[in-house]
């Protein structure tokens, strides 16, 4: 049986859904809904992003009570074989920032990507802890989404752990993955990058 991807560009919750029933929930009764069925994930993602990476700031003024926005980034230090992450987390209550430095060997083997993976996991955990049901997760490395959704093979311990973590929380949290263009001047993305770099120095 052929598999399809249902992309909702404008609806109750933007995202890619694997069944028509889930897609329909997001567009039924929504004025001006934009959605389309695709045979490949890449085409669906391209439709959502209008063929481009996000280059503008997400409008937090439109956030609902159960929604959160996160921008994540990471850094890696080869001499100490450690990585750091930065997270800018936004809800209706305002903005919070989180950062940290770790040296988990399984993640460290991912080098530059390790911190961004950890940041994504921290953001998802925060959303659940704060009772949110939707997280708009902004990142600049494509694998953050592709590994989580199983579109890329998880052939390293770090990516396997990340995929297992995502699978364990996806029933509690709808993560809308939004790729941003790195170093394009998006305020919160730049802030997450700065937080990660500062954590590496601490």
Automatic annotation (TrEMBL):
Its cofactor is Mg(2+). Keywords: Endonuclease, Hydrolase, Magnesium, Metal-binding, Nuclease. Residues 64-201 form the RNase H type-1 domain. The keyword Nuclease applies. It comes from the Bacteria. One of its GO terms (biological process) is DNA replication, removal of RNA primer. It catalyses: Endonucleolytic cleavage to 5'-phosphomonoester. Belongs to the RNase H family. Endonuclease that specifically degrades the RNA of RNA-DNA hybrids. This is Ribonuclease H. It comes from Tissierella praeacuta DSM 18095.
């Amino acid at each position: 049986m052929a598999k399809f991807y249902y992309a909702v560009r404008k609806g109750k919750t933007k995202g890619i859904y694997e069944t028509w029933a889930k897609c329909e929930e997001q567009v039924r009764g929504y004025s001006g809904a934009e959605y389309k069925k695709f045979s490949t994930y890449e085409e669906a993602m391209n439709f959502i992003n209008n063929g481009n990476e996000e280059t503008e700031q997400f409008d937090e003024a439109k956030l609902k009570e159960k929604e959160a926005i996160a921008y994540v980034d990471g850094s890696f230090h080869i001499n100490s074989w450690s990585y750091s992450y930065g997270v800018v987390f936004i809800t209706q209550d305002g903005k919070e920032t989180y950062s940290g430095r770790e040296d988990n060997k399984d993640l460290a083997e991912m080098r530059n990507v390790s911190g961004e993976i950890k940041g994504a996991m921290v953001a998802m955990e925060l959303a659940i802890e704060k009772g949110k049901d939707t997280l708009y997760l902004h990142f600049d490395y494509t694998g953050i989404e592709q590994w989580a959704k199983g579109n890329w093979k998880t052939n390293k311990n770090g990516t396997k752990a990340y995929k297992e973590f995502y699978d364990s929380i996806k029933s509690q949290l709808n993560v809308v993955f939004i790729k941003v263009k790195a170093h394009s001047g998006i305020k919160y993305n730049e802030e997450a990058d700065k937080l990660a770099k500062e954590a590496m120095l601490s």
